[in-house]
């Protein structure tokens, strides 16, 4: 029997405003993670290991930051003569052209392309979460169910549930209720932004919904499409078997890094049968200089450490000078922490320069310093500060 024809659509076009300064100059999927990776590496590696060779990426905000990383798709075995990696920018020229206003709107705008591909299953995934998942397993379960959509689900914290689409599941995995970002969630079972659709019925439904909503627009999948599929008994749930962490906010991004500092992280990024791949540049080995002290850290190639670093992630090219202290922080590529400076519970973007004896952060909320910012010698940024301060609209 022939294998089902599968198309994966990676949604990489959102503005990523909840990550604040980290997405001021880059697309959210291009945000670094765990030293050497980018967020989009996780869904692309899942595609590779699921043996799905047809992957389309919908881009919109700061597309150059993604194009530079994606290259021709080679790290994920997507550099192919037929199929492989395809980026979908906003376009003009037809009545479907224009700026995407949400995930369902993006599907509608690319409906003709999707229909022309002729997939048996359309896998739609976001790129702001850290997880491993065999998409082909979900596709097989979906095709066997006869449903129009299969939602991959996971349990979330009760105080965080209102950020997600929340489902109630009945017998046989049938989704009996779906609520998009409800103020008072009925359960803590959330969709984790991985969906498998039957393309023909789903696109037909989108056409009908689009005709009804008028100027309101299709918006996100959870606005109209998923509730309609659920009401008609056409939705099934597929529980995610392992770790999943949304990193779409500054606190969740920081907390996810904490998860990977333990001796036994929640997922093995170098698992022999399922490594997470990325487009990497050549870096020399990390150098730990006299006086360096490191405890519970991730240290990338090209770093130089002569100070004290605890509970932190050092991305490629980071320099921590003698007498400097870094605690519970995430330092992105090229950050330099000069002698006598202290960085605590902070996220420092690319090429930030922390001057001598400067103090950044402390106990409390996460401090965020934007790309290429220079914190002057002796300066102090309080816990929870944003530097430079965001411009007012």
* Category from helices, strands and their pairing: alpha/beta
State mean pLDDT (0 to 100 scale): 94
CATH top level assignment of the largest domain? Alpha Beta
Approximate strand percentage: 25-35%
What topology, given as strand order, has the largest sheet?
5-4-1-6-11-8-12
CATH fold-level name of the largest domain: Spore Coat Polysaccharide Biosynthesis Protein SpsA, Chain A
- Kindly state the percentage of residues in helix: 10-25%
Q: What is the correct CATH architecture of the largest domain?
A: Alpha-Beta Complex
Number of strands: 31
- Rg, rounded, reads 22 Å
Distance between the termini: 57 Å
List the uncertain runs.
none
Described by the principal axes of the CA atoms, the overall outline is elongated
Structure notes:
The chain has eight helices and 31 strands. It has helices spanning 41-49, 63-70, 103-109, 111-117, 135-145, 199-213, 225-231, 250-259, and strands at residues 6-12, 32-33, 37-38, 54-59, 84-88, 121-126, 129-131, 149-155, 165-169, 175-180, 189-197, 235-239, 244-246, 287-288, 293-295, 298-299, 304-305, 308-310, 313-314, 319-320, 325-327, 330-331, 336-337, 342-344, 346-348, 353-354, 359-361, 367-369, 374-375, 380-381, 386-387. The radius of gyration is 22 Å and the shape is elongated. It folds into two domains: 6-259, Spore Coat Polysaccharide Biosynthesis Protein SpsA, Chain A (Alpha-Beta Complex), CATH 3.90.550; 287-387, UDP N-Acetylglucosamine Acyltransferase, domain 1 (3 Solenoid), CATH 2.160.10.10. With 393 residues, it is α/β, with parallel strands linked by helices. A seven-stranded mixed beta sheet has the order 5-4-1-6-11-8-12. A six-stranded parallel beta sheet has the order 14-17-20-23-26-29, with no helix packed on it. A six-stranded parallel beta sheet has the order 15-18-21-24-27-30, with no helix packed on it. The mean pLDDT is 94. The longest helix has 15 residues, at 199-213. Strand 4, helix 2 and strand 5 (84-88) form a beta-alpha-beta unit.
């Amino acid at each position: 029997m022939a294998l089902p024809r599968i198309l994966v659509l990676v949604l990489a076009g959102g503005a990523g405003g909840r990550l604040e300064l980290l997405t001021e100059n880059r697309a959210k999927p291009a945000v670094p993670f765990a030293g050497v990776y980018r967020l989009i590496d996780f869904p692309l590696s899942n595609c590779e290991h699921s043996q799905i060779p047809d992957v389309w990426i919908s881009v919109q905000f700061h597309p150059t930051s993604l194009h530079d990383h994606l290259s021709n798709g080679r790290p994920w075995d997507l550099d192919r003569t037929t199929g492989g990696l395809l980026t979908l920018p906003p376009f003009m020229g037809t009545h479907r052209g224009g700026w995407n206003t949400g995930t369902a709107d993006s599907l509608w705008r690319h409906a003709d392309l999707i229909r022309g591909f002729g997939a048996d299953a359309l896998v739609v995934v976001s790129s702001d979460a850290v997880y491993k998942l065999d998409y082909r397993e979900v596709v097989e379960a979906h095709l066997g169910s006869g449903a129009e959509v299969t939602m991959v689900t996971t349990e979330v914290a009760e105080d965080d549930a209102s950020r997600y689409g929340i489902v109630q599941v009945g017998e046989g995995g049938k989704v009996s209720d779906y609520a998009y970002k409800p103020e008072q969630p009925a359960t803590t079972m959330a969709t984790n932004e991985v969906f498998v659709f039957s393309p023909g019925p789903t696109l037909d439904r989108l056409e009908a919904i689009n005709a009804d909503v008028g100027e309101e627009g299709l918006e996100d999948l959870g606005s109209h499409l998923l509730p309609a599929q659920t009401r008609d008994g056409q939705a099934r749930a597929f529980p995610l078997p392992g770790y999943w962490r949304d990193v779409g906010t500054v606190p969740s991004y920081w907390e996810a890094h904490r998860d990977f500092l333990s001796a036994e992280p929640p997922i093995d990024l170098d698992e022999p049968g399922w490594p997470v791949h990325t487009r990497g540049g050549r870096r020399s080995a990390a150098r730990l200089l006299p006086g360096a002290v490191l405890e519970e850290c991730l240290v990338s190639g090209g770093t130089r450490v002569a100070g004290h670093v605890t509970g932190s992630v050092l991305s490629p090219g980071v320099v921590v000078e003698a007498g400097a202290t870094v605690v519970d922080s995430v330092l992105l590529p090229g950050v330099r922490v000069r002698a006598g400076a202290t960085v605590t519970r902070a996220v420092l973007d690319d090429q930030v320069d922390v001057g001598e004896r400067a103090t950044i952060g402390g106990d409390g909320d996460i401090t965020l310093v934007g790309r290429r910012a220079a914190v002057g010698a002796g300066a102090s940024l309080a816990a929870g500060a944003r530097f430079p301060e965001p411009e007012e609209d």
